[in-house]
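Hey team,

Sharing the Large ribosomal subunit protein bL28 run so nobody has to redo it. Sequence (63 residues) first:
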Amino acid sequence: MSKRCAITGKGPMVGNSVSHANNKSKRRFMPNLRSIRVTLEDGTTRRIKVAASTIRTMKKHSK
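Structure output:
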């Protein structure tokens, strides 16, 4: 499974890990993925990986 949000397509980002002595080494910022159950139009349920920020946005717009 890829580390990618099934709805928004958010994936890992690349940046630097900076030490106290200002040494820089590459690191990856992973998305905060959660597994949720989604009901499809035909009535079946499926598990998908969704970013936590996407879940917050979906809850915000469902009100």
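The chain has a mean pLDDT of 95.

Ping me if you want the raw files.
A.
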